[in-house]
Amino acid sequence: MKHPDDDNELFNRLEAEMADPGAPSRGEVVDLDKARTARGESADSTPDASADSARSKSADPEPTESPDATPTLVDQKVPTVSGPGVIDRIKNSKRLDVFPAWMKSSAEFKEALGWLAGHAWHTVAFHVVRVPFVYLPKLVWRSPRGAFNILGKVGRWAVDGEGETLRQYTATNEQVDEYLKLSRQRDRRVRLRMVLTVLGAVFALGVALFLVYGAEPMTQVIAAIVAVLGCGLAGAPADAPLATRAVIKTEVQKLTSDIVVKAMASIGIGQIASAVAKGQDGIKFVSPITREGPGWRADIDLPLGVTVADVADRRSRLASGLRRPLGCVWPDADPNEHEGRLILWVGDRDLSKTGIVKWQLANARRHDIFKRNPFGIDPRGRAQSVPMIQHNILIGSLPGQGKTASVRVLACGAALDPSVELWLHENKGTGDLDSLECVSHRFVSGIDDDSIKYAADSLKLLRAEVMRRAGVIKKLPRDLCPDKRITRAIADKRSLKLWPLVGVFDECQNLFAHPKYGKQAGEDAEFIIKLGRALGVILVLATQRPDKDSLPTGISGNVSIRFALKVAGQVENDMILGTSAYKNGVRATSFRPEIDAGNGYLAGATALPVVVRTAYLDDNATHAIAQRAHALRKAEGTLSGHALGEDAESTSGPSYDLLADVAAVVPPSEKRVWNERVAARLAELRPEVYGGWKGENVTSALKPHGIKTTGVAGTTDDGERTTRRGIVRDDLTAAIAERDENRGAA
Prior knowledge:
alpha/beta, ten-stranded mixed beta sheet, five-stranded antiparallel beta sheet, elongated
């Protein structure tokens, strides 16, 4: 409600301002530039030092701010630091490649030359085959029409037929002068052309008579062929050319900024849609749209707060907006830029329609596993490879999506290195890896309990091998092994027995979900994955059921390289590709069943996850590679175990009974003993097996047998009483008795 004294107060304030001689006149013209300058000087003015000193010495602990205090300007009009200079901007600028990528890669260059040669050969062969059966009959059929066409053109030229239309136009419009000029010009032309036509006809008649009665038969044949061909070409209709196309080019719409802006505005991102509605682009093109491989590339800065994952989440909508198949549209992030930098690549054709991808090592004699293993191509046609040394690999998908084909590529790459010891376990029983049996140290194919037990025993042996290698690595001189990991030079020293060892477990869900062997197999696999990476022990696991029961989280959480083909949902996606992969836009659920078989997300082999279409090796190609690998290993003497018909378990290293060895070094009188003392005694008993062991090695080795460590009080060599981790001998004897009882029952 309005107060009754409000009007009086207003008039009183107006009278006071008018009575103040220092008040500015309301009719005065103000210079805006001077006013702005004054405000800037006021804001930038330095406060009085004496005033600051007085305020600092004031006894009032909470000084109050004056109502007339000038607000602090956060952004200065003239910045004190102007940012990077010209040299720095030049240094940070991105240089475009002098040569295209396909010219710098020998493999891609050879592939491009091969494609060009194949294209030329196809074109030549296509037309050569059609010359006697299609092109010549067409020319003969069209030659009479061509002869009439030639005579008709000569006759029209002789009578100046091309000028008839113009003469008729002048006559119709009663342009007498122009008509007379054209008539006189026509008369002059006709007289000259008729003379030339008659002379040409006489000459042609003479040549024809000579060819008929005086020329050699070969000359007559050549003349007839030339005449027929010439008349046939002259008789070809304009809408029916003689030759057909050997290759039909696919016309693809060029990617333009207008198309991209409209498509981005249609995918449901509010910042972009609202900007486009106001007549703006909503996105920023940081470089021109260029041709890259078999498609177009656009580098885009997204609006503030919008990430590449937001766009990848709407990939199907983006494909609809671009009017392209889903397999042609691939939004990716730029690992060298911020999270809002989008690399939009739009291919000419669907990735699933590129056909079978040829493996680069399909015809190779050998391969070095310490180099990257060729794996397939990405949507841009660039070769993608996988490092195997110091990595473990997990592959997952629904059935029938190309999982086993991916395993074949990796196994064949390992087989082509004669120094690699290959352990293959195909727990599906269909024989997909049977071709590589001839080069395997351990091999099994089946889904029965015996096959599952064989695979579980392999993991147990691999675990013991990891511990053995750890002791050997520790003893190596620093100059030979400075990083405490397997190198090519160390692997080539066969006496050390540190060559690369690749264990492949296809359909591993049948192993890890087994009620009897699954739990221990999962623990062994987790141990190998965590410790075997630097020791040359590599696991390749493939599963079609990626859940916590069939794939223990300790395994899925520690593998370094992951490949996910089509999976059912978010849980399976993140089990294979890692936590939050689905949230970040890396979604193997987006692949289409059957159509995209062989396509998957590869994570860990590159800076960012990338879509890869794997190379394909059928059984015949795998068999040919295995035979070359077998001959190579036989020549270098590296065949072992199952490949030689021997018991791989007995040839994999010195056989020993861990529990019996521990019982031998711990006498019955010693009820409790420290693990570090057990390790020292084991190393003295079998240095080739337990050399370099420590207390933690004993703990890990005895855990699968149900022997737990506990605090054990004892006396050190210096006579000091302390408590350390150790075992109880009664637990050891109980474990031995239980094992022997189980063996007797079996």
